[in-house]
Amino acid sequence: MIINLPSVVTLHVHQLLLKIIFLIAFNGFFRLGELVVRTKQSTGRVLQRQDNLFTWEKGILKGVELTFRFLKNNKTNKPVTIFLSALPSSPRICPVNTLYAFVNTFKHNRGPLFQHTNGQYVSAHFVTEQMKKLITFIGLNPTQYKGHSFRIGAATNAASLGYSEQLIQKLGRWNSNAL
């Protein structure tokens, strides 16, 4: 789907913005509402600009720590840090490299991590509308895909790679046994 972004989304900055949201959502098993704003009142409940820390080893980007102050099933109300590893063998689809490019292109220093270049937060509506266009472009039925599809796809992919059900539940932060 990411490879088709230039065919559907004309602005390069929007391509980068959507690419990183898609990659982070999939690789981190995230709910779209944990990354982008659903309502104006939820701007403080999504991943914030200051809550990412890149890790380096001998000058090589190794990963990123994403700290979430609010997650759906976090009953402790303490921040939760999730580490995403770089994918050196797949730089074009690496969430860490793409996030690094994003924060160096979009220079804001506070508020939701995902903002347009004018400082306006990215809405879930914007992301899902662009996602529908992409899904239609690649010949699939957009009514069968939602913002939650990244999370479901991540779990399905992990299962196909042989991950245990318990590990998938841990990675996806699921409290129930419903996978």
TrEMBL record:
Sequence intervals crossing the membrane: 12-30
Can you cite a GO biological process for this protein? DNA recombination
Q: Which domain of life is it from?
A: Eukaryota
Q: Which residues form a coiled coil?
A: none
Write down the InterPro entries for this protein, in alphabetical order.
Answer: DNA_brk_join_enz, Integrase-like_cat_sf, Phage_Integrase-like_Recomb
**Gene Ontology molecular function terms on file:** DNA binding
Q: Which UniProt keywords apply?
A: DNA recombination, Membrane, Transmembrane, Transmembrane helix
- The protein's name in its UniProt record: Tyr recombinase domain-containing protein
Species lineage: Eukaryota, Metazoa, Spiralia, Lophotrochozoa, Mollusca
